[in-house]
From TrEMBL:
It holds the Pfam family AstE_AspA_hybrid. Keywords: Hydrolase, Metal-binding, Zinc. This is ACY2 Aspartoacylase. Transmembrane segments: none annotated. The keyword Hydrolase applies. Residues 44-125 form the AstE/AspA barrel-sandwich hybrid domain. GO terms for molecular function: hydrolase activity, acting on carbon-nitrogen (but not peptide) bonds, in linear amides; metal ion binding. It comes from the Eukaryota. The lineage of its organism: Eukaryota, Metazoa, Chordata, Craniata, Vertebrata.
Length: 138
């Protein structure tokens, strides 16, 4: 499957659908070239690996007591460093990120994840290396 976004639930956006078509086309082109015996050279790519899901701050009754800080909103895939603002409490206090490494938040404040108790997902940027790839003919 391919998930391309962000896109609100129940909304069809032309720009997101265009991105989806392009990535599916690239995938199908790769499969065709691979099946034709094309050799792909070694490569390295940066990816984001999920570290953990982060919930909203809650009171003892499980009610949300803070919202995503305005400086974090719409900053998916951007670096989040120790001391950067994460949440803003309903009484105006800022809750800062306290971590020992830079992370890259994703799925920030997405409506579909409220019921899953997820404010965002912390990811780390890593590099993956692939050896050359070629269909072995039997």
């Amino acid at each position: 499957g391919v998930e391309v976004g962000p896109q609100p639930q129940g909304v069809a956006r032309a720009d997101v659908l265009d991105k989806m078509r392009k990535i599916v086309k690239h995938g199908l082109d790769f499969v065709q070239l691979f099946n034709e015996g094309k050799e792909f050279p070694p490569c390295t790519i940066e990816v984001f690996k999920i570290m953990e899901k982060v919930d909203y701050p809650r009171n003892k009754n499980g009610e949300i007591i803070a919202i995503i800080h305005p400086k974090l909103q719409d900053q998916d895939w951007q670096p989040l460093k120790n001391g950067d603002p994460l949440f803003l409490t309903l009484d105006g206090k800022v809750i800062l990120y306290q971590g020992n490494c830079t992370v890259y938040p994703t799925f920030i404040n997405e409506a579909a994840y409220y019921e899953k108790k997820q404010a965002f997902v912390k990811t780390e940027k890593i590099k993956l290396t692939a050896k050359h790839l070629r269909l072995s003919v039997s």
